[in-house]
Amino acid sequence: xxxxxxxxxxxxxxxxxxxxxxxxxxxxxxxxxxxxxxxxxxxxxxxxxxxxxxxxxxxxxxxxxxxxxxxxxxxxxxxxxxxxxxxxxxxxxxxxxxxxxxxxxxxxxxxxxxxxxxxxxxxxxxxxxxxxxxxxxxxxxxxxxxxxxxxxxxxxxxxxxxxxxxxxxxxxxxx
Length: 175
What we know:
- 71% of the residues lie in helices and 0% in strands.
- The chain is globular and about 50 Å long.
- The chain has one domain.
- With 175 residues, the protein is mainly alpha-helical.
- The N and C termini lie far apart (48 Å).
Protein backbone atom coordinates (compact mmCIF):
# COMPACT_ATOMS: atom_id res chain seq x y z
CA UNK A 1 0.00 0.00 0.00
CA UNK A 2 2.80 2.47 0.79
CA UNK A 3 4.22 1.96 -2.71
CA UNK A 4 0.93 3.04 -4.24
CA UNK A 5 0.74 6.00 -1.87
CA UNK A 6 4.19 7.13 -3.00
CA UNK A 7 3.41 6.41 -6.66
CA UNK A 8 0.18 8.39 -6.68
CA UNK A 9 1.35 11.05 -4.25
CA UNK A 10 -1.17 10.40 -1.48
CA UNK A 11 1.47 10.07 1.25
CA UNK A 12 3.25 13.17 2.55
CA UNK A 13 6.78 13.72 1.31
CA UNK A 14 9.06 12.68 4.20
CA UNK A 15 11.50 15.41 3.18
CA UNK A 16 9.04 18.08 4.29
CA UNK A 17 10.21 17.54 7.87
CA UNK A 18 13.71 18.75 6.92
CA UNK A 19 12.88 21.41 4.31
CA UNK A 20 13.42 24.24 6.82
CA UNK A 21 16.78 22.70 7.73
CA UNK A 22 17.85 22.65 4.07
CA UNK A 23 16.89 26.30 3.71
CA UNK A 24 18.87 27.12 6.88
CA UNK A 25 21.94 25.33 5.48
CA UNK A 26 21.77 27.39 2.28
CA UNK A 27 21.20 30.57 4.30
CA UNK A 28 24.26 29.89 6.47
CA UNK A 29 26.38 29.03 3.42
CA UNK A 30 25.45 32.41 1.92
CA UNK A 31 26.42 34.33 5.05
CA UNK A 32 28.61 37.26 3.94
CA UNK A 33 31.20 36.47 6.64
CA UNK A 34 32.54 33.52 4.69
CA UNK A 35 33.25 35.73 1.70
CA UNK A 36 34.22 39.05 3.35
CA UNK A 37 36.16 37.84 6.40
CA UNK A 38 37.53 34.49 5.25
CA UNK A 39 37.78 35.48 1.58
CA UNK A 40 36.07 32.41 0.17
CA UNK A 41 35.73 32.96 -3.57
CA UNK A 42 32.38 34.70 -4.10
CA UNK A 43 31.54 32.79 -7.26
CA UNK A 44 29.84 29.52 -8.19
CA UNK A 45 32.69 27.29 -6.99
CA UNK A 46 33.13 29.08 -3.67
CA UNK A 47 29.41 29.08 -2.95
CA UNK A 48 29.16 25.38 -3.79
CA UNK A 49 32.12 24.74 -1.47
CA UNK A 50 30.39 26.56 1.38
CA UNK A 51 27.11 24.71 0.85
CA UNK A 52 28.94 21.38 1.03
CA UNK A 53 30.94 22.52 4.09
CA UNK A 54 27.88 23.70 6.02
CA UNK A 55 25.85 20.67 4.89
CA UNK A 56 28.65 18.37 6.04
CA UNK A 57 28.80 20.12 9.42
CA UNK A 58 25.04 19.81 9.93
CA UNK A 59 25.02 16.19 8.70
CA UNK A 60 27.76 15.26 11.19
CA UNK A 61 25.61 16.67 13.99
CA UNK A 62 22.46 14.93 12.74
CA UNK A 63 24.32 11.62 12.63
CA UNK A 64 25.69 12.15 16.15
CA UNK A 65 22.11 12.72 17.32
CA UNK A 66 21.05 9.42 15.72
CA UNK A 67 19.09 11.24 12.99
CA UNK A 68 20.58 9.33 10.08
CA UNK A 69 17.44 9.30 7.94
CA UNK A 70 17.04 13.06 8.37
CA UNK A 71 20.65 13.52 7.30
CA UNK A 72 19.93 11.49 4.15
CA UNK A 73 16.79 13.49 3.45
CA UNK A 74 18.68 16.79 3.69
CA UNK A 75 21.21 15.37 1.22
CA UNK A 76 18.29 14.61 -1.12
CA UNK A 77 17.45 18.31 -1.09
CA UNK A 78 21.07 18.99 -2.03
CA UNK A 79 20.71 16.67 -5.04
CA UNK A 80 17.41 18.25 -6.07
CA UNK A 81 18.82 21.76 -5.74
CA UNK A 82 21.99 20.91 -7.69
CA UNK A 83 19.89 19.27 -10.41
CA UNK A 84 17.91 22.49 -10.79
CA UNK A 85 21.06 24.61 -10.80
CA UNK A 86 22.68 22.48 -13.50
CA UNK A 87 19.59 22.78 -15.67
CA UNK A 88 19.60 26.56 -15.18
CA UNK A 89 23.23 26.60 -16.33
CA UNK A 90 22.07 24.93 -19.54
CA UNK A 91 23.30 21.38 -18.89
CA UNK A 92 21.09 19.12 -20.98
CA UNK A 93 19.04 16.19 -19.68
CA UNK A 94 21.36 13.58 -21.17
CA UNK A 95 24.32 14.51 -18.95
CA UNK A 96 22.64 15.97 -15.85
CA UNK A 97 22.70 12.54 -14.18
CA UNK A 98 26.45 12.21 -14.71
CA UNK A 99 27.03 15.65 -13.23
CA UNK A 100 24.81 14.85 -10.25
CA UNK A 101 26.75 11.62 -9.71
CA UNK A 102 29.99 13.59 -9.62
CA UNK A 103 28.52 16.17 -7.25
CA UNK A 104 27.35 13.42 -4.89
CA UNK A 105 30.83 11.94 -5.01
CA UNK A 106 32.28 15.35 -4.15
CA UNK A 107 29.84 15.74 -1.25
CA UNK A 108 30.70 12.27 0.04
CA UNK A 109 34.41 13.01 -0.14
CA UNK A 110 34.00 16.30 1.67
CA UNK A 111 31.86 14.72 4.37
CA UNK A 112 34.59 12.11 4.77
CA UNK A 113 37.19 14.87 5.16
CA UNK A 114 35.19 17.13 7.48
CA UNK A 115 33.62 14.45 9.74
CA UNK A 116 36.75 13.25 11.57
CA UNK A 117 38.19 16.75 11.79
CA UNK A 118 35.00 18.16 13.31
CA UNK A 119 34.49 15.25 15.69
CA UNK A 120 38.11 15.33 16.86
CA UNK A 121 37.99 19.10 17.31
CA UNK A 122 41.46 19.22 15.72
CA UNK A 123 41.95 22.71 14.21
CA UNK A 124 44.93 21.65 12.07
CA UNK A 125 43.04 18.69 10.60
CA UNK A 126 39.96 20.81 9.88
CA UNK A 127 42.06 23.60 8.36
CA UNK A 128 43.77 21.07 6.07
CA UNK A 129 40.38 19.71 4.99
CA UNK A 130 39.13 23.24 4.30
CA UNK A 131 42.28 24.12 2.36
CA UNK A 132 41.73 21.10 0.07
CA UNK A 133 38.01 21.65 -0.40
CA UNK A 134 37.26 25.37 -0.51
CA UNK A 135 38.00 27.85 -3.30
CA UNK A 136 39.47 31.09 -2.02
CA UNK A 137 40.06 34.55 -3.43
CA UNK A 138 43.49 36.13 -2.97
CA UNK A 139 44.33 36.30 0.71
CA UNK A 140 41.76 33.65 1.62
CA UNK A 141 42.03 32.02 5.02
CA UNK A 142 41.39 28.31 5.51
CA UNK A 143 41.94 28.89 9.24
CA UNK A 144 39.06 31.41 9.29
CA UNK A 145 36.68 28.98 7.58
CA UNK A 146 37.83 26.10 9.80
CA UNK A 147 37.23 28.18 12.95
CA UNK A 148 33.74 29.17 11.78
CA UNK A 149 32.84 25.57 10.88
CA UNK A 150 34.10 24.30 14.23
CA UNK A 151 32.14 27.01 16.05
CA UNK A 152 29.02 26.00 14.10
CA UNK A 153 29.63 22.34 14.93
CA UNK A 154 30.11 23.12 18.61
CA UNK A 155 26.97 25.26 18.64
CA UNK A 156 24.93 22.53 16.96
CA UNK A 157 26.16 20.07 19.59
CA UNK A 158 24.26 22.09 22.22
CA UNK A 159 20.94 21.60 20.42
CA UNK A 160 18.59 18.66 20.67
CA UNK A 161 17.31 16.82 17.60
CA UNK A 162 14.01 18.72 17.46
CA UNK A 163 15.78 22.10 17.39
CA UNK A 164 18.11 20.84 14.67
CA UNK A 165 15.27 19.60 12.48
CA UNK A 166 13.29 22.80 13.08
CA UNK A 167 16.39 24.80 12.03
CA UNK A 168 16.23 26.86 15.21
CA UNK A 169 19.83 28.03 15.04
CA UNK A 170 22.14 30.39 13.22
CA UNK A 171 25.85 30.97 12.98
CA UNK A 172 27.22 31.43 16.49
CA UNK A 173 28.39 34.91 17.48
CA UNK A 174 32.00 33.69 17.73
CA UNK A 175 31.90 32.56 14.11
